[in-house]
Design a protein that fits this description.
Helix content: under 10%
Oligomer: single chain
Radius of gyration: 25 Å
Number of helices: 6
Protein name: Alginate export domain-containing protein
Number of strands: 22
Organism: Hyalangium minutum
Shape: globular
Distance between the termini: 24 Å
């Protein structure tokens, strides 16, 4: 099955930015592969090289100095290259290895002088996304270096050490610590930093701007631990704690408990809570129950989401209210190529807004729109041989206005799955009572073509066109070359 299908056709910038298994200059990787392949191996190590080269052309809207009727689009012409180098069993018979991913980029539509005027904006740079040594033996696993860490609380990147042990009884422990990866660090990006905080105030400090914050460049230690249990008659779970320090003061402190139950077809359940210990409020809470059968599945969810930022985030000045949501869904799997689902949902948006803002008076007035939002969605998917397609229709009303979303995807694989063509068409009508700029019709279309040249090489082309009240019309084009070598 091809990895390029209609389900992957999200906004391609999101795909590119979130790709953690990418690569870099194809010729560089190919040369390295040849050199390593020519050398006589001294042990039974396996080496894998993944390379990706991207050529990107798109526009983004400029907001400063513009009006809704005077739209200015800024061109972006980027070359992005990834290199992933992984090695396994560096010592014969031992699970010892190394994994890494480096991203190098240059934006020819953004002069260096202009980029230097904006915090966190770079016209060319390199990011070491991860690079760590790994060792495992029995129930023990250790990682040392720059690594990504994902759990029910968040996803983050840190430079440090992570140790994990799981006993044969299904009970384990995990501990980690290091420095949180920040945009101001070495070969670093702020992609996994909390929102609403500038990467650095170096420019303001050099200019003597009043209020410039030296702590933004400070190192940010982070550490945590977790108790684990699993495979206990269908039950599993974890209890975790995390703390981060900035300039010697606590910046984030959280604790999370998650419980799961599931034993194949039948009843499955998840319950969890993530506490923000600084504000003593739940950052996340979730309860889900699901019943799976061969021909259908039904599920119900209750969730709460509360934004969590750094203590000096500007977003705390505006609003930090939670959102509660309930969902009910049924999936149907009849015999044949079609699948169906139907979903109902409702949301409650709490409106704890800074009283000094004019918006607060509007939200609290008698004429304010409802803070609840209800709606639902229906969808179907088809897969028959090399043909695949899906249709989703969603309608919501209340907070955020009336919204209708229609999304159609389709694709076909040719030439024994060596050539894939996928397309996506999206239409939305939004009438937001709060924001006059979120009113009107929004259209988007995307075409993805991908050709496998060899089992180790693939080329792809993505074209995207959007028409909406924000940008009027904007076009995106991406060309990709992927190369993978196993030595």
């Amino acid at each position: 099955m091809s990895p390029y299908n209609a389900a992957t056709l999200m906004s391609f910038l999101d795909r590119a930015q979130s790709s953690m298994r990418g690569a870099a200059p194809a010729l560089w990787a190919l040369g390295l592969a040849v050199a390593l392949g020519a050398a006589e191996p001294a042990w039974a190590a396996a080496v894998q090289i993944e390379a990706r080269t991207e050529a990107q052309a798109y526009q983004i809207r400029a907001w400063r100095g513009t009006t809704p009727d005077d739209v200015v689009l800024l061109p972006r012409r980027r070359i992005v290259q990834y290199l992933g180098l992984n090695a396994f069993e560096l010592v014969t018979g031992q699970d010892l290895g190394f994994e890494s991913s480096l991203r190098v980029f240059a934006d020819f539509g953004l002069p260096r002088g202009e980029a230097e005027k904006i915090d966190g904006l770079r016209s060319e740079d390199a990011d070491l996304q991860y690079a760590y040594a790994r060792y495992a033996n029995g129930g023990f696993e250790g990682r040392l270096g720059r690594q990504l860490y994902t759990d029910s609380m968040d996803i983050m990147a840190f430079d440090g050490l992570r140790l994990r042990y799981m006993s044969r009884f299904g009970v384990g422990v995990e501990a980690y610590g290091g420095l949180w990866v920040k945009g101001s660090g070495f070969l670093s990006s702020s992609a996994y930093q909390p929102d609403g905080t500038r990467e650095s105030d170096s420019r303001r400090l050099e200019q003597g701007v009043v209020g410039a914050d030296e702590s933004l460049n400070a190192i940010q230690p982070v550490y945590g631990a977790k108790l684990l249990f699993g495979s206990l008659k269908g039950f599993s779970g974890s209890l975790g704690y995390r703390k981060s320090l900035l300039d010697g003061k606590t910046d984030l402190e959280r604790a999370a408990l998650e419980l799961r139950y599931g034993r194949g077809l039948g009843v499955n359940a998840v319950a969890g809570v993530d506490l923000d210990l600084l504000q003593l409020t739940p950052a996340q809470a979730r309860i889900e129950v699901r019943l799976d059968r061969e021909l259908f599945a039904v599920s119900a969810q209750a969730l709460r989401f509360t934004p969590v930022f750094s203590t000096n985030s500007i977003w705390y000045y505006f609003a930090f209210a939670p959102r509660d949501e309930v969902r009910a869904r049924a999936d149907f799997y009849p015999v044949g190529p079609l699948r169906f689902y139907v979903q109902a949902l409702g949301s409650l948006y709490h409106t704890n807004i800074n009283e000094n803002l004019g918006l607060a008076n509007f939200v609290d007035s008698e004429d304010a729109p409802s803070s609840t939002n209800v709606g639902g969605s229906v969808g179907t998917s088809l897969r028959r041989g090399s043909l695949r397609s899906a249709l989703d229709v969603t309608y919501r009303t209340g907070f955020g206005g009336n919204q209708l979303w229609v999304d159609l995807t389709g694709g076909y694989s040719f030439d024994a799955n060596l050539l894939d063509l996928d397309a996506r068409l999206s239409v939305a009508h939004v009438d937001d009572e709060f924001n006059p700029q979120l009113r009107g019709n929004f259209f988007g279309a995307q075409l993805w073509a991908s050709r496998m040249l060899t089992p180790a090489a693939r080329v792809s082309l993505v074209l995207e066109q959007n028409v909406n009240p924000f940008t009027r019309s904007d076009t995106k084009a991406f060309f990709l070359f992927d190369l993978k070598a196993n030595l």
